[in-house]
């Protein structure tokens, strides 16, 4: 089975349908429906975390970093400057300083590296991006169907969005269900905004 964040999100959805639960990616015990995540900085993997492991690794122990942070709506940034070819993307900073753009799709997420000059221009127009925590936070942009949203979010929100798109997409154009699901996802971000 796939050990990527998307694979785990899909397994989580399947386990809920079967009435089973997720397991902590660090110690293997069952975790509650509402649980934290840690990112493995060696490979960017997002792991479910029980309460004890969240506390243990919350201080950035070793190569694990607790995914924390609020949801902040950003201004002053034009996603076109980042070369976003589609209306929905998220950007993460790797431990090596490389920024990767990822695009939710019915097949999961695909991505590519963002040019350093393009990222520097984005940071100049939105200085909050200079504080982006590698692997744990992401810039999320949505310009689908006239939307104009830019968010700084915990990276696990982005993988939830990938699972939403993958689970709701039908046919070549997404069908009628995916667009309301995406809108509901962004509405939930606004409700949790800090």
Give the termini distance in whole angstroms: 36 Å
Lateral arrangement of strands in the main beta sheet: 4-9-8-5-6-7
Oligomer kind: single chain
CA-based gyration radius: 16 Å
Q: How much helical structure, as a percent, in the residues? A: 25-40%
Count of discrete domains = 2
Helical/strand content category: alpha+beta
Protein name: DUF5947 family protein
Topology diagram in text:
Blueprint: H1 5-18, E1 36-40, E2 45-49, H2 51-57, E3 64-66, E4 72-73, E5 88-93, E6 99-105, E7 108-113, H3 116-125, E8 137-142, E9 149-154, H4 155-168, H5 178-191
Antiparallel strand pairs: 1-2, 1-3, 4-9, 5-6, 5-8, 6-7, 8-9
Protein name: DUF5947 family protein
InterPro entries: DUF5947 (IPR045991)
Pfam families: DUF5947 (PF19372)
Please describe what this structure looks like.
InterPro entries: DUF5947. This is DUF5947 family protein. The chain has five helices and nine strands. The chain is an alpha+beta fold and 194 residues long. Strand 1 and strand 2 form a beta hairpin. The model has no long low-confidence stretch (mean pLDDT 83).
């Amino acid at each position: 089975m796939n050990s990527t964040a998307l694979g785990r999100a899909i397994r989580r959805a399947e386990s809920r349908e079967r009435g089973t639960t997720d397991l902590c990616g660090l110690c293997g015990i069952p975790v509650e429906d509402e649980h934290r995540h840690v990112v493995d900085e060696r490979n960017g993997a997002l792991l479910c975390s029980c309460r004890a492991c969240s506390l243990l690794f919350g201080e950035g122990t070793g190569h694990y970093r607790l995914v924390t942070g609020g949801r902040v709506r950003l201004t002053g940034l034009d996603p076109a400057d980042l070369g976003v070819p589609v209306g929905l993307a998220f950007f993460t900073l790797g431990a090596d300083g490389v920024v990767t753009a990822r695009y939710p799709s019915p097949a999961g997420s695909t991505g590519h590296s963002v040019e350093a000059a393009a990222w520097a221009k984005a940071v100049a127009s939105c200085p909050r991006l200079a504080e982006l925590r590698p692997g744990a936070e992401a810039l999320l942009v949505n310009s689908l169907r006239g939307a104009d949203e830019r968010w700084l979010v915990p990276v696990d929100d982005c993988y939830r969005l990938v699972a939403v798109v993958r689970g709701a997409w039908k046919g070549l154009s997404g069908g009628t269900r995916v667009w309301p699901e995406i809108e509901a996802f962004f509405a939930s971000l606004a409700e949790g905004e800090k």
